[in-house]
Amino acid sequence: MADAPRAAVVVEDLTKRFRDFVAVDHLSFTIAEGEVFGFLGPNGAGKSTTIRMLCGLLLPSEGRAQVAGLDVARETEALRRQIGYMPQLFSLYPDLTSVENLEFYAGLYGLRQPSLGTRIEELVVRLDLEAVRGQLTGTLSTGWRQRVALACAIIHEPPILFLDEPTSGVDPAVRQQFWNLIGDLAAEGTTVLVTTHLMEEAERCARLAMIDRGRLIALDTPQALRDGLQGLLYEIDADPLLPALEALASAPFVMDAALSGATVRVRVAEMGISREAAIRDALAAAQVNVVDIRAGEPSLEDVFISLVGDREEASAR
Amino acid sequence: MRRPATLRRMLAVARAEWRHNYRDARSLAIVIALPVFLLLIYGYGINLDLRDLPFAVQDLDRTEQSADFVNRLVRSGYFTLARAIQDTREIDSVIEVGAVRFVLVIPHGFGGDLASGRPAQVQVVLDGGDSATASVALGYLQALVGDHSIHLARRWAMRHGLPASAVEPALRVVPRVLYNPELRSVNFIVPGLIAVILTLLAALLTSGCIVREREGGSFEALAASPIAPIEIVLGKLLPYAVISFVDIVLCMVVGRLLFGVAPMGDKALLLGLSLIYLIASLSIGLLVSSLARSHQVATLIAFLATVLPSLLVSGFAFPVRSMPVALQAIAQIIPATHFLIIIRAIYLKGAGVSAFAPRVAALAAMALALVLLTVRTFRKRLE
After folding, report:
1. Positions in chain B whose pLDDT score sits under 50
2. A 127-156: CB under 8 A from B
């Protein structure tokens, strides 16, 4: 394995407790250099807490983590020279302009003139910030703020980048721009750990860690995660919607049932036969009017729901 | 110029803090208007001098001698004759409504007694409700009566062909007041006030500046950067040291223009030593700010830790030596106590460093200790 990529981040049994609450529960994973690694999970799953431990902002209660070969608890200051961090909360100074915020972070990382000025102009172009360069960041919309914050996080060209929900509150066009930039940075060799709760964003990660209530429930490429999903998927348009969901969730042959927009998605055990008739019977018994039934393609959301469902069944047993 | 990275990081913090301040109208108001406002209120408000105190006279004697005596009081400048009373029943009412602060009653036979060389008496009815003014007024009155007696005795002796020395009192106190010969209280109050105003400003300025970042999101990004606590602390102190240094100059100018109070001693020395005091006071605010959970709590604690002791225990209002032993010990660990001694010595006595070297040493040691303590307790973590 001579040409195996070196690990940028190594996490072993990483655990964080706040009094009785276990926010992160024995996480283990490795991120290769130059990889875009996604953290997918609902709010409160422990994604931010994990990133904060990796930045040295929180001390692990148990376990170990190395970033750029440096221990997060013992070599914190050396580690901080190797990372860029974009917190989930608005972290800019609202009464400074976009460029003044960039100057502040450039100074924090010890950049000096003239490369400091060149670097700021480079980022203004790369993130399209020309229109807001002189505007106080407190008066910017969320999309602009996030762009300035991302520019601040990468001003010192860190080899490892932690982005905590960088696209929350951002419109789809800007989100697209963000992910293009993340791809470019990875192509240049930057390791990126990015959290999200949006499935379509998760698709763009090289590998994905699914986190639920502090635990790692799956870790693979998006494709492999989808391929690993057991059973058949159906999308059902029904009226009324909620009784349809209840009826299907309690049907014995249904593995998972969930709402996706105005559609019920169900996963049923594969028995070599179509389950459409069984679904129609179950809905008819519940006096629900079926508008349409079609076969569905497995999505990451289905994977997540099935894994969380398995965990709940296991803990109920 | 190639600056080391540590200096660049420190200056980045200082610059952001500076920009934050000049964009914030409220902090500009605190910096410029507050010192002038306080100096005006307290400079004019805390006036312990006696000037033009209104009084009334009930002259039952109506002689040349009684008129002469009243004249002497009025000429002194301390008292103003507000009204003459005919009826004894009026005495209570004029004091009660506050029209006068005391009433002088000159009895029948005052002039006759004096003319024939007998001791005469006058009565003073004082408003004891304001005991401070009453006792000061009484002191001035007694001194004036004493002067007048000697004056009358000399005249009586001359008229009877006796040498003036025959009627001089055996002992007389001739006070000579050093450093503040006119005993103007503003000379004493203004330098102390400058010290208190600087303390208040320092607490207000720095007590918010770290906790505010923790309340917002900026602390997280700052803490995840490679900046060292000492770079943050010095970077935060620098702009506020400049701002409060401008304030001490402002206070000195206002003291000079409005109250005519200027330092007798070396102004450059005073400014230099003020800087040490400012660093100590600003560090207290910063220390509180880095430990407190919320902005309001930080401001309150900073106020309790700096402004209250500097008002009450430092010797600003009450002399340290007349305090209980425990309070005297506390006074010694408050920077304001030492700075008050220094600023008053330079203002009133024109003293040099040799007169208060131990105070300078104490102040410098406190400033250094407070900066180090702030750096040591600064945590670049979120818990």
Report:
1. 1
2. 136, 152-153
Q: Which domain holds residue B132?
A: 53-167
Chain B nearest-CA residue for A81: B226
Dist CA B78 CA B140 (whole Å): 8
Minimum CA–CA partner of A18 in chain B: B383
Q: Which domains does chain A have, with CATH numbers?
A: 7-226 (3.40.50.300), 230-297 (3.30.70.100)
- Give the residue with greater pLDDT, A285 vs A270: A285
Query: For residues B178 and A136, which has the higher predicted lDDT (pLDDT)?
Result: A136
Whether residue A60 is preceded by a cis peptide bond, meaning omega within 30 degrees of 0, is no
Whether complex ipTM tops 0.85: yes
Q: Do B160 and B203 have their domain in common? A: no
**In this complex, do A95 and B217 lie within 8 Å of one another by their Cβ atoms?**
no
Chain B interface, best mutation among A17, A79, A91, by max B CB count within 10 A: A91
A283 CA to centre of own chain: 35
Same domain, B25 and B105: no
